[in-house]
Amino acid sequence: MKNRYRLFVVSALVIIICSSLLYIPFLHNAVIFDDHGLFTSLEVFDYAQTPFDFRPRTFPYLSLGLIQVLFGSIEANRVVSLILHIFCAWMLFALLASLLTQALTFSNAGSSNEKQVATKAVCLAFIGAMWFALNPVAVYGAGYLAQRTILFATLFSLLSLWFYRRAFAENRTADVITAALFYFAAVFSKEHAVMLPLASVATTMLYGGNTRLNIKRAALFLMLCLPSAIAVIIAKRYVVGTAYEHDAVSLTPLLLHNLPLQGSSGKLWMASVATQAGLF
């Protein structure tokens, strides 16, 4: 147990150090994309006056506005984003370690070497968390301040998964309610987290015990999450199944014409790749 705890502490410190070394040299970089309009137009200060209004993304934007009001610098907001990113990596590490321990215990049923199983789970979880912490896609999301929404949605989603896992692993039905509350926070941070309950329910099979009770807990979780999911879908219904980048209509033929590929579907995929690569 002591060795596992020591591994946890060392891993957490390594995540902090590596993430900080990667981010801190670039805290003074110029703003990019939506950040430019958000901060130069002073729109960010408007968000500081709207704590929550049952529309997705208002809470993350509130945090941007408050930090800007209190400290008056983009660097301060970037430090907050770095801290949130590290918290996400920590939660991912803890969640993976727990889930992997459970999965490896099942796959090595009858084995008495619990210490080896726990160590292997922690090491694999650390690799996954470090891959997340230093991955260019995650780094871009954390450095792009307008994507504070993704940081909060990711953190709250991981917390929801953690409490859902604990409800079954430690027989704590009350944690199902906590998991649903964090889902509420996640989906209202960014609507893309709407399908999280299905991912949570998929982990139920890792746990034994009373099958009927497990089904009841999973059903309770889905029932508690349903109002939040419906509210967000209604609030964002205009982006479901509709084109929302209207300017792309005029650019797509030009992109497709310049891509030497056969078949329209292949060209569309490559056009998307080329566009994103150019932006990033």
Keywords, separated by commas or semicolons:
single chain; 280 residues; mainly alpha; 74% helix; 0% strand; globular
Report on the structure:
The structure is a single chain. About 75% of the residues lie in helices and about 0% in strands. The protein has helices at about 1-25, 35-40, 45, 60-70, 75-105, 115-135, 135-145, 150-170, 175-190, 195-200, 210-235, 250-260, 265-280. The protein is globular. It is built from 13 helices and no strands.
Quick structural summary:
The protein has 280 residues and is an all-alpha fold. It contains 13 helices and no strands. Helix 4 crosses helix 5.
Number of helices: 13
**How far do the termini sit from each other?**
44 Å
Mean pLDDT: 82
Q: How would you spell out the order of helices and strands?
A: HHHHHHHHHHHHH
How large, in whole angstroms, is the Cα Rg? Answer: 22 Å
Unreliable spans: none
Main beta-sheet strand count, sense and barrel state: none
> How does the helix and strand content classify structurally?
mainly alpha
Oligomer: single chain
| DSSP strand count | 0
Beta content: under 5%
Spatial shape: globular
Helix content: over 70%
